[in-house]
Amino acid sequence: MNDLLLRACRREAVERPPVWMMRQAGRYLPEYRKVRERADFLTMVGTPELAVEVTLQPVDILGVDAAIIFSDILVVPQAMGMRLSVDDSTGPRFHQPLRTPAEFAGLRPLVPEEGLGYVLEAIRLARRELEDRVPLIGFAGAPWTLASYMIEGGGSKNFALAKRLLVEDPGRAHGLLSRLAKAVGTFLKAQVAAGAQAVQLFDSWAGSLAPSDYERSVRPWSARVLADLPVPSIHFGVGTGELLTSMRDAGGDAIGVDWRVPLDRAWERIGADRAIQGNLDPSVCVASWDAVERAATEVLGRAEMRDGHVFNLGHGVLPYTPVENLQRLVDLVHERTAR
Amino acid sequence: MNDLLLRACRREAVERPPVWMMRQAGRYLPEYRKVRERADFLTMVGTPELAVEVTLQPVDILGVDAAIIFSDILVVPQAMGMRLSVDDSTGPRFHQPLRTPAEFAGLRPLVPEEGLGYVLEAIRLARRELEDRVPLIGFAGAPWTLASYMIEGGGSKNFALAKRLLVEDPGRAHGLLSRLAKAVGTFLKAQVAAGAQAVQLFDSWAGSLAPSDYERSVRPWSARVLADLPVPSIHFGVGTGELLTSMRDAGGDAIGVDWRVPLDRAWERIGADRAIQGNLDPSVCVASWDAVERAATEVLGRAEMRDGHVFNLGHGVLPYTPVENLQRLVDLVHERTAR
Question: What is this structure's pTM?
Answer without folding.
Answer: 0.96
